């Protein structure tokens, strides 16, 4: 009897491991690369940005070379413009504020094309952080086919989840 219960339990576990919820099955790990990250934002950022959970945020997508250059300049990025194959890639500019003593880093990027969402996890170091609002930008290159399906950015910002629209330049 013990052997029958054990085999039944083992079979149940094997069946459950093979079952992946539909939501998880459609997750697409995005091949993205961080082109730039710095401490600058567009002029008048606070007026242009979307406010969510008392945070000012912005997500702008450039789909061609001219828009890419314009948004790069608008974000006041001082590095030389990175060369991107705009026939294959779109470029996503994200802007937000952070604590200058606990800078943000991107830890994960995942697309959910069926939901038209790009999920980005952003973390900072634990501990005492100043309450200042230092500007932060992230610039990501995304595959054009994946990018074309996305309209919403879901930011996991420490313990918060914030949703905002991705606007096209």
From TrEMBL:
Organism listed in the record:
Savagea faecisuis
Which protein is depicted?
Answer: Lipoprotein
**Which top-rank group of organisms is this from?**
Bacteria
């Amino acid at each position: 009897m013990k052997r029958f219960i054990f085999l039944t339990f083992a079979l149940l576990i094997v069946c459950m491991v093979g079952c992946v919820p539909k939501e998880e099955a459609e997750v697409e790990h995005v091949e993205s690369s961080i082109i730039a990250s710095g401490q600058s934002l567009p002029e008048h950022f606070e007026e242009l940005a979307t406010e969510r959970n008392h945070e000012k945020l912005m997500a702008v997508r450039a789909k061609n070379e001219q828009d890419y250059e314009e948004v790069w300049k608008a974000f006041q990025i001082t590095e030389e413009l990175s060369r991107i194959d705009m026939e294959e890639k779109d470029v996503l500019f994200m802007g937000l504020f952070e604590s200058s003593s606990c800078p943000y880093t991107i830890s994960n990027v995942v697309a959910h094309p069926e939901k038209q969402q790009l999920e980005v996890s952003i973390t900072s170091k634990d501990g005492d952080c100043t309450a200042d609002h230092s500007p932060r930008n992230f610039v990501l290159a995304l595959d054009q086919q994946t990018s074309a399906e996305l309209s919403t950015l879901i930011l996991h910002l420490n313990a918060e989840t914030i949703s905002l629209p991705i606007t096209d330049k």
